[in-house]
Amino acid sequence: MSDVMSSVLCAESLSLAYDKRVVVDGLDLAVPTGRVTAVVGPNGCGKSTLLRGLSRLLSPHEGRVLLDGQAIGELSTKEVARRLGLLPQQPIVPEGITVAELVERGRHPHHGLFRQWSREDEAVVAAALEMTELVELAGVPVDSLSGGQRQRAWIAMALAQRTPVLLLDEPTSFLDIAHQIDVLELVRDLNAREGTTVVMVLHDLAMAARYADHLVAMSGGAIVAEGAPADIVTPDVVESVFGIAASVVADPTTGDPVVIPHRRKRETA
Length: 269
Fold this sequence. Notes:
The chain is α/β, with parallel strands linked by helices. The chain contains ten helices and twelve strands. It is globular and about 60 Å long.
């Protein structure tokens, strides 16, 4: 209970379903505040569904999600947007919108009837563009960018939202290794500078172990193990979660755990 009470974002007995088909079942999770958490597991295990539930895009079938100690379903849409940012998989780019215009949309939750665009908004947008190294591309249409640049533009919009919690659903998908590293370094930098609580879904276990403080390993809609990468990335957990035999060694430079899958033997006729 103490972990739940100290967590900005947590789930209690959370079940999530699509058309009564339960995907996440009775899950409890207290997201470590001010840390980077990576959710890992095989395809179809409920990782992205969990993120949708945590962000209120998907209402609980059972249980609840708490944001700052309040049931997230009881908060207004604008209030949630001020406290929690979400970068979904493959977000849709409005036609013709420039990088700067996209990033400016991150300020919308802070506006209202008597709160219009201000110098503070300009400063926040400028800082987000600088942090993501997009200043020179501010006037370029988003749909003309490379995959890595486009992903940075969406992250810049999330940065401009200035929320204490940021959820990223597979932020490195469809990116080459260099751009994957760029995005994950940006996430780490954001956490270090702002103390932002980050939860991201990742497919690459090695990247998750290197860039996250806390790992949540899922299988079959449930959490199999969670904790520091060095404690979680073990041969037993890898086999339990991914169904493969593997060795785990320490990276000689960083000490991070590295998974070396064993070759599967194929039957010969």
